[in-house]
Amino acid sequence: MGKIAVVGSLNMDYFIETDVLPKMGETVLGNHFFRSPGGKGANQAVAASRLGGDVTMFGSLGEDENGHAIREHLQKERVDLAHLNLVGDRPTGVAFVELCGGDNRIIVVPGANRSTNVNYMQRITTELLSYDVIVFQFETPLEIMDFIIPVLHRHGKIIIVNPAPAAKLNQTIIDKITYLTPNGHEFQALLDTNGSIDEILQAYPNKLIITLGDKGVSYHDGDQVVNIPCIEVTPVDTTGSGDTFTGALATALAEGRNLHDSILFANTAAGLSVTKRGAQSGMPYRNEVESLLRER
Predict the structure, then answer these.
(1) Any idea which positions bind K(+) (predicted)?
(2) 291 is in which domain, residue-wise?
């Protein structure tokens, strides 16, 4: 199996469950509150690790209570933390997640994640080149993409970018990325387009993989647009489902699976993840995904 590096955010997530979301200036009562390690980077690292991936996390944490708790948690999840950037002048990033009716809305305060910058990337470039699959998201400064992706591309690495929160990327950088995994809203901001999904997929065959929630996943295989339907589940919490997909895709590709089988594996894992609460706590393990794949 190839080695996976996840470069990205680490947050502590604060969840509030409610039956109704408050309007501006309104106060409502919530049902439950809980705290859980998160951040899109850490989420994807945990997803890949639980599914059998050999994963190292690259990113930044504050030297505070939340940072200590996240390190302890990721160690239990068997994620290698040897190259984490510990910063004393910024707090660990946090996210506030409102859960209502099986859906969510999120506010993220980056904190220490802003220190996952070009200076940090310059220090870890040599280490990154020892990995086979490298995963990025957009919760760290986007300037790192311009710096490190051309280097990884020159060395023939598999580069996966999950463009969330949505933002536009330079076309020359997009051309050097192996796989992009936006959802049905993010791809338009990423590519600065109003085109239909099918039109855009055709323009980026075997590169653009769009996750569509209960409508499954679509990509273009070079001949036609292919849709892989989602598994039938009752959603409890969709937080982290996209991260589960990207982490699972990295694991499958690191194992040498072809793109279709990798997407099928990742789509199944993402479907399972929404049946439990929490971004990381709801992520499935290898045996759960393989069991469902045998039934499909």
Answers:
(1) 237, 239, 273, 276, 278
(2) 3-10+40-91+112-295
